[in-house]
């Protein structure tokens, strides 16, 4: 499988994203009741923000991944930890499917991390998933994330975790 990322287009991708973020399997995305217009508005705001980027991941040419990168010194985690130079915040979502492929989500997070570390300025990736999202905690650990502590965000109790380039390379092998 080949994976490539392209910038998300908030207008062109709104319907696609709406189907993903409102799906029952995407409950931790916290957009279950969003309309297509809500999704377009949210991602238009992200696109205008200097410290946030969103991307669609194409797997063998088919949209299957939503990836967001942000600067945790300016968004999401301000005041909740002391950011270091080179920290990059990340969210990812795998498009819901009725025909899951074993190992697909692990492949996705591995490719997301490769994409983030392709930028030489990225020293460490920071995530803050909901403490109840045990499946994503296991995926995060599989690619090298180390949980630090629980934090309280306005919308959830989150598990603050970090992954350095070296931790990622060790977790997934030298091919990283």
From TrEMBL:
Coiled coil: none annotated. Pathway: Siderophore biosynthesis; mycobactin biosynthesis. Keywords: Acyltransferase, Transferase. It comes from the Bacteria. One of its GO terms (molecular function) is acyltransferase activity. Residues 6-53 form the Acyltransferase MbtK/IucB-like conserved domain. SMART domains: AlcB. Acyltransferase required for the direct transfer of medium- to long-chain fatty acyl moieties from a carrier protein (MbtL) on to the epsilon-amino group of lysine residue in the mycobactin core. This is Lysine N-acyltransferase MbtK. It comes from Streptomyces omiyaensis. The lineage of its organism: Bacteria, Bacillati, Actinomycetota, Actinomycetes, Kitasatosporales.
């Amino acid at each position: 499988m080949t994976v490539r990322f392209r910038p998300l287009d908030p207008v062109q991708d709104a319907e696609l994203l709406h189907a993903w973020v409102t799906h029952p399997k995407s409950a931790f995305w916290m957009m279950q009741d969003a309309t297509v217009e809500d999704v377009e508005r949210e991602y238009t705001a992200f696109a205008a923000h200097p410290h946030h980027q969103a991307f669609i991941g194409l797997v063998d040419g088919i949209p299957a991944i939503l990836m967001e990168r942000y600067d945790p010194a300016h968004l999401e985690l301000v005041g909740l930890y002391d950011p270091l130079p080179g920290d990059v915040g990340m969210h990812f979502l795998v498009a819901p499917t009725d025909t899951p492929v074993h190992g697909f989500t692990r492949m996705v997070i591995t490719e997301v991390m490769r994409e983030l570390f392709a930028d030489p300025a990225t020293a460490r990736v920071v995530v803050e998933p909901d403490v109840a999202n045990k499946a994503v905690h296991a995926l995060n650990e599989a690619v090298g994330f180390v949980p630090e502590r629980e934090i309280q965000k306005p919308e959830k109790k989150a598990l603050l975790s970090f992954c350095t380039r070296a931790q990622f390379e060790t977790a997934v092998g030298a091919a990283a």
